[in-house]
Each structure stands twice: as structure tokens, then as C-alpha cells.
Amino acid sequence: MKGIPFQHPDFCPQVVVRRLGSAWLDWVALCGEVLVTRGRAGLWNRSYPSPTAFNMARHRLMKKGLLVARRRHGLDTVLHLTPKGTQQVSEALHPQRFWDQKWTGIWSVLVYDVPEKQHAYRTTLRSYLQRLRMGKLQGSVWISARDVRPDFADLQAAAGVNDYALLFAARHVLGQSGVALAQRAWDFERLQAAHAWFLETVAATGTRLKAAGGAPPELIGLLRELHGAYLTVMERDPLLPAALQPPGYLGPQVHQAYLTLARQLAERL
User: Fold this and answer.
1) What is the spatial distance between Cα 27 and Cα 44, in angstroms, rounded to a whole number?
2) Which end of the chain is more exposed for a tag (fewer CB within 10 A), N or C?
3) HEC profile for 88-108?
4) Which whole-number Å values give the CA distances from 260 to 136, 219, 256, in the listed order?
């Protein structure tokens, strides 16, 4: 399998904003999903830059109570996420829990006014709101279909956001329907392009995989590329409940294609 195809100038896996530890938890979660009967630590070791980096990362995550290692019957050590670790895995790895939620009809609306001289603060705040998968309705008005009060409280404790922002709940915003408002707040056109690219690439890769072999290092590399590409295209997906999804939304197909190819690669390892 020469020439890993999961590269695109607009949807590059390297632009995923995830801390190293969090990204590693996502990788362990994937391996636990697709290699449930043989999720060997040795596999993860070979997928890491070096044994030393692997051991340091594993130690840090175990020390934080996010990861445990178990050895059974003299076999390779198996790594497992703790309940605390599972909570820190990317939401995109389990999107169904958000798609299947019944929308309450209430929007969380955040309005802020950060002084121009605090440009860095404003930029950091916007990045944080994007990580919460909130949508930008206008320059300083962001919305979410979820109850983001706990996140707002954390932000207040960490950065005193109450000095600049207000958070309130609303059933009607701009007098628009839920779907219309969602399409205004999130760039679904760009998201649709990202989803379509991913589906086309997975289909082409699956065809090539059937016709060609591949050594374990190549397959592991392809699995990592697939994983990174999936997280990248889903990074700005708001993971809205079905009632708010626009026509033609491809999120569920993208998630299924990701898992299917990941399992096909895992079967060859």
C-alpha cells in the first residue's frame, strides 16, 4: 500500500488541534474499538515515534488516572481507558450519542465584547468556543444546541469570562427555524465538502486494500492516517441532534466509513 492517500490541502490531519495526550487517548480508543480481542500494547508501541516517547506518554496518562495496563495469562499487556479517560476522548469517536439526542428546542446563546486591545484573549476565546462545537451566528454571538453552562462556569473560573460575556437560553433566535438557524451558524457547505472528500478517499483506499497487500508497519501508518483524517474533517462538525441537521448531512456515513475501513486494516495486522 504505497502512497497513503489521506492528504488534502484543506483537510490535513496535522491541523487537528488536540494536545498530544488527548490525541493519544483517541488512538487508544480507536485501537480498543477495532482490535477489541487483540488490542496489544505492542501495536501501539510500534505506532509511536519511539519506545521512549511511548513509555513516557503511557506513564503520564496512567499517572493521571486516564489509562490502565493489564497483563492476562502471560500475554501482551492490554491498555484500557478508565471512565475518566473515556470522558476525554474526542466526541467525534462516539458521535451517535449526540445525533440521537432529542433537542429540547432551547439554544445556548453566548454574547461577548472583548476590548480590542485584548486581541489574544479574544482569539483564545473563539478557539475555545470552536472546540465546544459552538456556531458563530455573528462576530461576537455564538450558539449551541447543548447546555454549555458547565463549560461557561469553567471558563469563568479559569479566565474571568463574565467580565466580557453573557450566556443565556433562548427558544427563538432571529425568528428562524432550528434548521435554518443551524445552517446560518455553522459552515455546512465546507463541512459537506470535507465529508465528501473523506468518503471518496475511504472508498478508493478500500478498493486498493482489496487488490494489494501491505506489511504491518504500512497498515499501522495507514490506520493512523485514517484516524487523523477522520478527526480533522469532524473537528468543526457541530454533531447536532437529527432534528437540526441540514438536508444531505453526511456525518453518519462518514463515521461508518471510518470504522469499516479501520476494521479492515485491523484484520490484516
Assistant:
1) 8
2) C
3) CCCHHHCCHHHHCCCCCCCEE
4) 33, 14, 6
Cβ(82)–Cβ(41) under 8 Å?
no
Return the axis-axis angle of helices 149-159 and 119-131, rounded to nearest 10°.
Answer: 150
Q: Which residues make Cβ contacts (< 8 Å) with residue 95, sequence separation at least 6?
A: 234, 237, 239, 251, 252, 255
Rounded to a whole number, what is the distance in angstroms from the first to the last CA of the chain? Answer: 13
Can you read off the three cell numbers belonging to residue 33?
Answer: 474499538
Full-model pTM:
0.77
Q: How many residues does the chain have?
A: 269
- CA–chain centroid gap for 176, Å, is 29
**Could you tell me which CATH number the domain at 106-170 has?**
3.30.70
Q: Is 4 helix (H, G, I), strand (E, B) or coil?
A: coil
Domain ranges of the chain: 13-88+187-267, 106-170
Cell of 212: 494489494
Question: Sign of dihedral through CA atoms 225, 13, 138, 142?
Answer: positive
β-bridge mates for residue 78, sequence order: 40, 70
Query: For residue 9, which amino acid is it?
Result: P
